[in-house]
Amino acid sequence: MIRLGQAARKLNVGSSTIVDFLANKGFDIDSNPNSKVTPDQYELLAREYADSAYDKEEASGLTIGNSSTDNVILTSTPSPSTPEPVVEKEKEILIKDNVASQESATEEATDESKKSESP
User: Most CB atoms closer than 10 Å: which of 42, 43, 45, 50?
Assistant: First the structure.
């Protein structure tokens, strides 16, 4: 005897599909995955869902992605004909304080207004 869940996995179909199929054939089986399936019932299921089981077997042999385990070491030598680009360093500017005080801002504003008033 085989359990319903095991039969579903082996045949690559859902357990509810198996329960429905066996109910149509006149067998009364619980939808619990731990329910037992008799050898006669399993034989009926195996004949009915042989295609699904075959698809599962075929798919299990497929590999997705690169399965190569060989280590490949690539070495590159710089070609003498292409010179490396020269990168110039930019001049660095150090800013110590970027917050203007309120007094200096008002002094600058009054100085500018005086300059604009005098022609």
Answer: 45
Q: What is the spatial distance between Cα 32 and Cα 28, in angstroms, rounded to a whole number?
A: 12
**H or E segment and range at residue 36:** strand 36-37
Q: List Cβ neighbours of 39 (8 Å cut-off, separation of 6 or more).
A: 1, 2
Query: What does residue 3 show for φ and ψ, rounded to 5 degrees?
Result: -80, 155
Convert 38-82 into a string of H (helix), E (strand) and C (coil).
CHHHHHHHHHHCHHHHHHHHHHHCCCCCCCCCCCCCCCCCCCCCC
Cβ count within 10 A of residue 13 = 18
Q: Tell me: the pLDDT tens digits for 52-91?
A: 766 677 777 666 766 656 666 767 766 666 666 677 777 7
Q: Which residue has the higher pLDDT, 102 or 56?
A: 56
Question: Please, what is the Cα angle at 47 between 46 and 52, to 5 degrees?
Answer: 65
Predicted local confidence at residue 104, as pLDDT: 59
How far is the C-alpha of 107 from the C-alpha of 119, rounded, in Å? 20
- CA angle (100, 101, 103) in 5-degree steps: 130
